[in-house]
Amino acid sequence: MIVSFWPIVIVDVGGSMLMIVLSFLCIGLAHRLRRVDPQNVIWTYLFWLCMGLAGFAVSRSAGHIVKQALVLSGQKEIWAEIRPFSGAINTFMFVFLAAVTLFFERVWKIYEQVTTDKTALERAHAELLNLNQNLEHIVTERSQALAVSERQYRRIFEVSRDMILVVDSRGHIVDINPAGGRMLGFEGASETPKGEPFQTFFERTADWEELMTSILRQGFVLNSEVVLRRRNGAGMHALISAGLDKEPHGFAFSIHLQVRDIQERHQMQEQMAQADRLASIGQLSSGVAHEINNPLGVILGYTQLMLRSEPSESERFKDLKTIEKHVRHCKSIVEDLLNFARRSEPKKEKVDIHKTIEEVLGFIGQNIGSSRIDFQTDFDRSIPPVVVDDKKIKQVLINLLMNARHAVGTRGTIRVSTARRAAEGQLEIQVTDDGYGIEEKHLKHIFDPFFTTKPTGEGTGLGLSVSYGIVKKHGGEIRVKSKPGEGSTFTVVLPAREKNAGEIE
Ligand code: ADP
Predict the structure, then answer these.
(1) Interval between CA 341 and ligand 1 midpoint (Å)
(2) Which CATH number characterizes residue 396's domain?
(3) 281: enclosing H helix or E strand
(4) Residue 435 — pLDDT band, cuts 50, 70, 90?
(5) Of the residues 245, 261, 277, which one is the last residue of a structural domain?
(6) Do 397 and 467 belong together in one domain?
(7) Residue 40 falls within a domain, yes or no?
(8) Helix (H, G, I), strand (E, B), or coil: what is residue 207?
(9) Are 294 and 322 part of one and the same domain?
(10) Atom 25 in ligand 1: residue holding the nearest Cα
(11) Is residue 152 in some structural domain?
């Protein structure tokens, strides 16, 4: 009977031992898994489950082995006594396993929640990261576009030939482009009119006030013509367009102005007007002069005839002499007029300009008597012969020198100089005096026919207009620079192309 139980005993004891071994192997495996991924709750749970199962396996298998040992050794009563303890340990182990499972079920839920939150957080973080990178990209792109556009506008501001400037609400210059600085006479890079009131560059304060009133009333002005005064005092006609730039909130504002230099255009317009005036006066006066010239000749002829038969001490002789003097004066005016109006082309020939000037100076010297006027010359002897109408150029020089002589009075210096402007193919003759000079208000009228500041009988007002006509006919120009009290400089510019001797243009 006993023998028939051996296989059961062997299987029971062997199985129990195998169970213990296997359960410990399970613990080892679960422990390894936990070490590989300590964050993973499943492995922790498996580890504790294996521990519980191992405990159960040990208590159960140890119970069976002890039981078989006690039964086989005939000590069944001892087994009967400890059997309840073995059962209790088994039950405890089951309770332990249930507790672990229950506890981990809670932990699992928390773990799941945490994992879900973590995933959401990770996704949100990734999105934020993406957004941040995009934002950086957009900001970089916009900044680059802004820099390009700013560079473009800066370039327009810097290379513009017109003056572009910004003034604040008090009219002080806040910013001005290089062309603007130059226009106002600030040449070097270190010189700038920034900070100065723009008003100070206006010739007339009324112009500035009118401009400001218009801008503040209607918000802009278009092509308003004003005269600006450069730093060196020179005037400049300019066209101003401007707009008001108001701050969106508040009362602060600035004014953006664009100023165009129209000095040259203005001068040309004046010259054209002058030429028109001269042409119409020329037409009118030539008719009148022709009509008067012949009767004047007749009066002069008869007066001279009558003078011959009069004794020089008689009263009649003196009267006739007075008539002769005044008729001669009238004739000289009429001749000037005819010269002025004559449309004949100049008879040009090859002329040594210095010889011409010296002849004129000699003639003037003889005529001015004993006054203490110092005539100086400064000739550029390298100037080759020029092709001009010698008589007419002499007339121009006489007119200029007689005016200079009048300006210096009985004492002063008159200087005649020549210079060559080879690059432009021009020759310059300058007549400078240190006489009374010309008032600015007269400057633009001195070439007008009949404009004179000399007393009646002394000036006809035709000398400069005749000279102007002659020089223009030669394809040249005549300019003047003068300051009251300091003297005047007249510059005659003539084309200096060389021609073969005797050749007439
Ligand atoms: P006129 O000499 O007969 O007055 P002009 O046409 O020669 O006529 O000159 C016109 C005016 O220009 C003169 O009346 C004078 O006021 C002024 N003018 C010309 N030359 C000079 C000079 N060198 N210095 C000062 N004023 C001058």
Answers:
(1) 19
(2) 3.30.565.10
(3) helix 263-308
(4) very high
(5) 261
(6) yes
(7) yes
(8) helix
(9) yes
(10) 437
(11) no
**Centre of ligand 1 from the C-alpha of residue 403, in Å:** 5
Q: List the structure tokens of 191.
A: 């010189």
Verify that 496 and 353 share a domain, yes or no: yes
Give the pTM: 0.47
Q: How far apart are CA 72 and CA 12, in angstroms?
A: 13
pLDDT by residue (tens digit) across 274-298?
666 666 777 777 778 878 888 999 9
| Percentage of the residues of the chain whose pLDDT score is greater than 70 | 92
Question: What are φ and ψ of residue 189, in 5° steps?
Answer: -65, -30
Look up the CATH number of the domain holding residue 238. 3.30.450.20
The answer to whether 431 touches 438, Cβ cutoff 8 Å, is no
Q: Which helix (H) or strand (E) holds 369?
A: none
* Measured distance CA(357)–CA(394) in Å, rounded: 7
Q: Which of 281, 373, 403 to mutate to test the pocket of ligand 1 (most atoms within 8 A of CB)?
A: 403
Indicate the average pLDDT of the chain. Answer: 86
366 close to 401: Cβ distance less than 8 angstroms = no
CA distance 490 to 241: 36
> Looking at the predicted structure, is the pLDDT value of residue 225 above 90?
yes
pLDDT for residue 62: 81
Q: Are residues 102 and 201 in the same domain?
A: no
Summarize the confidence of residues 348-366 as an average pLDDT.
Answer: 88
Question: Hey, what are 164's tokens?
Answer: 């572009």
Residue 151 domain flag: no
Confidence of residue 453 (pLDDT cuts 50, 70, 90): very high
Q: Which pLDDT does position 504 carry in this prediction?
A: 35
Helix (H) or strand (E) holding 362: helix 353-367
Q: What is the 3-state secondary structure (H, E, C) of 155-175?
A: HHHHHCCCEEEEEECCCEEEE
Are residues 353 and 334 both part of a single domain? no
Domains of the chain: total: 4
CB within 6 Å of ligand 1 — which residues?
Answer: 399, 403-404, 407, 433, 435-438, 442, 446, 451-454, 459-465, 488
Instruction: Specify whether the backbone of 269 is left (phi greater than 0), alpha (psi in -120 to 50) or beta.
Output: alpha
Residue 144 belongs to a domain: no
**Contact at 8 Å (CB) between 408 and 434?**
yes
One domain for residues 335 and 415 = no
- How do residues 16-59 score in pLDDT, each as one tens digit? 888 889 888 988 988 888 888 887 778 888 888 888 888 888 88
Q: Which atom of ligand 1 is nearest to the CA of 465?
A: 6
Domain that holds residue 500: 349-504
Together in a domain, 419 and 329 = no
Residues 474 and 498 in one domain: yes
